[in-house]
């Protein structure tokens, strides 16, 4: 689309931030009188604060206008959620916002995710600004997407940006819905949106300290113990002070201390990565963590390799450990890639890579079409996905050799 129009100001201006129960009640009453879909967004302070709580909630509904709500001043928005009733909530990348919205009592009964709709339509760019420009011919500025939304008071230009994020979401939803209907994908989208709405929170990652950036250089169990102790202490400080852990102590400092194994507090302070004001301010805490790790008995040290959340070995090891499964996985991936291309959508949206692996590693026996349908359903595949892939994948599992070797086999995208 040529010459897109910049969207610079909300149609009704930038509303004042709702910070009182009285103002919230007034907007809730307006929302209850209105009807139609509601645009919803939330702003967090990722990289600044501990956790992923919402620091601003944006709501827009025809007949009620736009509201910018401070969930710190008004932490219970369940009344607003009740007033919206069965309304469809339109969000962009809903999986990012639904958890923090639920924390303040905002839980939808129906969802339309404009990012996910774009993926199902095979759009190459599905960021909000890109998809608004493509569908509506409007440009959105995104320069404030990574600011510290916990700042108070919030700046006027930030509030304008926040209001514009919900200004045309419902119009965008309508345009994408028309595209989905034309493409025969409207039912696919409904199933995906409902699965997204009902998705449980992800399980906590075992031993998250092992994901410290640069940890690949730390392999000795004693060094790993120091890295673990510093990570845990940093996380405690971050939680106590509501600061993103990376701003309390950078990963590079944790890795430097683990690698050096300093034997005194002075030696720890002498590391270049601990020369900053922030690291020095809590040096006693960091040294306490290091000293505790150094004093651990050998039996208390962490293993060189951490536990895996996946019960399956990595696919690169399949050829040695289970050659038949490796061949099935090759065939399954090839069929999914073909079907995704034929239906103009990303492979991972047609069938999750984890589902492909589990079907290949432990297929039903015998691998009839009906058995594969049941296996895919048990693994969480939606009906529309099963209808497209079950029969081709059953054939691929039964006879992998019937699936030709591709010219090149790109690695599928990781699970979200």
TrEMBL record:
InterPro entries found in the cross-reference section: 3'-5'_exonuclease_dom (IPR002562), Exo_C (IPR041605), HRDC-like_sf (IPR010997), HRDC_dom (IPR002121), HRDC_dom_sf (IPR044876), RNase_D-like (IPR051086), RNaseH-like_sf (IPR012337), RNaseH_sf (IPR036397)
Pfam family, one: DNA_pol_A_exo1
GO biological process: nucleobase-containing compound metabolic process
Entry GO MF terms: 3'-5' exonuclease activity; nucleic acid binding; nucleotide binding
Organism superkingdom: Bacteria
Residue span, HRDC domain: 220-300
Keywords from the UniProt entry: Exonuclease, Hydrolase, Nuclease
Stretch list, region Disordered: 303-323, 347-367
UniProt source species: Beutenbergia cavernae (strain ATCC BAA-8 / DSM 12333 / CCUG 43141 / JCM 11478 / NBRC 16432 / NCIMB 13614 / HKI 0122)
SUPFAM superfamilies (UniProt xref): HRDC-like, Ribonuclease H-like
Protein name, as recorded: 3'-5' exonuclease
């Amino acid at each position: 689309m040529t010459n897109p129009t910049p969207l610079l100001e909300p149609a009704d201006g930038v509303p004042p931030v709702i910070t009182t129960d009285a103002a919230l009640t007034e907007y809730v009453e307006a929302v209850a009188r209105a009807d139609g879909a509601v645009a919803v967004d939330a702003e967090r302070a990722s990289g600044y604060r501990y956790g992923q709580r919402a620091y601003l909630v944006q709501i827009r509904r025809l007949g009620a206008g736009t509201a910018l709500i401070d969930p710190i001043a008004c932490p219970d928005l369940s009344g607003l959620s009740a007033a919206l009733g069965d309304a469809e909530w339109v969000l962009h990348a809903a999986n990012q916002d639904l958890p923090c919205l639920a924390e303040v009592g905002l839980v939808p009964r129906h969802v339309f995710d404009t990012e996910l709709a774009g993926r199902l339509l095979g759009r190459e760019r599905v960021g909000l600004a890109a998809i608004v420009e493509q569908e509506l011919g409007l440009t959105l500025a995104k320069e404030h997407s990574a600011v510290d939304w916990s700042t108070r008071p919030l700046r006027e230009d930030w509030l304008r940006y926040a209001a514009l994020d919900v200004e045309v979401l419902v119009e965008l939803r309508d345009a994408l819905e028309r595209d989905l209907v034309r493409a025969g994908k409207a039912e696919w989208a409904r199933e995906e949106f409902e699965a997204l709405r009902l998705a449980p929170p992800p399980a906590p990652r075992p031993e998250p300290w092992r994901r410290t950036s640069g940890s690949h250089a730390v392999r000795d169990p004693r060094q790993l113990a120091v890295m673990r102790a510093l990570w845990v202490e940093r996380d405690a400080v971050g939680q106590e002070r509501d600061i993103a852990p990376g701003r309390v102590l950078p990963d590079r400092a944790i890795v430097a201390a683990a690698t050096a194994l300093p034997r005194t507090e002075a030696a720890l302070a002498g590391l270049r990565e601990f020369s900053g004001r922030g690291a020095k301010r809590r040096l006693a805490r960091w040294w306490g963590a290091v000293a505790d790790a150094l004093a651990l008995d050998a039996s208390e040290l962490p293993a060189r390799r951490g536990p895996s959340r996946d019960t399956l070995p990595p696919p690169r090891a399949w050829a040695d450990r289970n050659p038949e499964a490796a061949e099935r996985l090759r065939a399954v991936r090839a069929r999914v890639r073909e079907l995704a291309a034929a239906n103009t959508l990303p492979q991972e949206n047609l069938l999750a890579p984890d589902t492909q692996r589990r079907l290949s590693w432990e297929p039903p026996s015998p691998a009839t079409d009906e058995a594969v349908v049941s296996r895919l359903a048990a693994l969480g595949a939606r009906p529309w996905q099963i209808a497209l892939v079950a029969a081709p994948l059953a054939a691929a599992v039964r006879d992998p050799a019937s699936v030709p070797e591709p010219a090149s086999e790109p690695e599928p995208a990781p699970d979200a």
